[in-house]
Amino acid sequence: MTGVEEVDTAQLPLECAGQVLRRAREEKGLSLKDIADKTRISMHHLEAIEAGSFSRLPGRTYALGFSRTYARAMGLDENSIVGAVRAELAERDERHAAHGGGFEPGDPAKLPPRGMVWVAGISALFLFVASMVFITRNSGIGTGPDPLVDDEPAAQAQVSTDRNSQPIPAPAATDGQVVFTALEDGIWVRFYDATGVRLLEKQMARGERFAVPTEAEAPQIWTGRPDAFAITVGGKPVPKLAENDIVMRDVAISARALLARAETGAVGGGNEPASN
After folding, report:
1. Averaged over 158-185, what is the pLDDT?
2. Is residue 188 part of a domain?
3. Which of 62, 59, 76, 60 is nearest to 19 (CA)?
4. Which among 98, 127, 162 is the end of a domain?
5. pTM above 0.90, yes or no
6. If you average pLDDT over every residue of the chain, what do you get?
7. Which of 56, 83, 98 is where one domain is finished?
8. DSSP per-residue string spanning 151-187
């Protein structure tokens, strides 16, 4: 006898990821506010994780990312906690599907099938073309000897001249380097292009920078903390995408798009409001 009692772990009651995190927090004598200050995760999101109420979070990515950050702060095995959260999400999805549930707009893993998206897009294009043909035939638009559209639109980009044949320079191109800098720790973000190719997806640390590739086609951003990023275009600061923690997705972040937002004073623009 060694005096140490061996415990059969198979007989221990199973705990969900949130319960494990809460127990670790309580054993350390910490409050939810302590964890919120340490991880920069809001208290109501932490409460949702501990309760296993992942539907109260903006989406699956946030459930996994926030749980990993919480586990790291508690000194727990991050992969084990994330694996448990994945299992709980899968079980939730199975229950949801069994009751005839659809997909959740904030959950990228439960979007409609790609085939359905293609069918919808082709149908919309067909309706648009048919409408234009009908309008043209019945209104006489496009008839006559002269075209309504300039045959050489590229000529508009050339240098124009005035009456004295003095060249007038064309407007400067807005193609400066776009750089995002995280102002807080643990800010999840995904940068991607128009084809869906991910340029970067991670939780950025305070002061970490990401330069959007200038060759990226129509770069976009998805994050729940647009207020936590400073942005520069060609080394010059431009306004933040938002002033509060709102989920923003499919927001254009090319130099031209950001400068246009600055000129119009646009703030916000996310298509998925964060749940509070």
Report:
1. 64
2. yes
3. 76
4. 98
5. no
6. 78
7. 98
8. S-GGGGGSPEE-TT--EEPPPPP--PPEEEEESSSSE
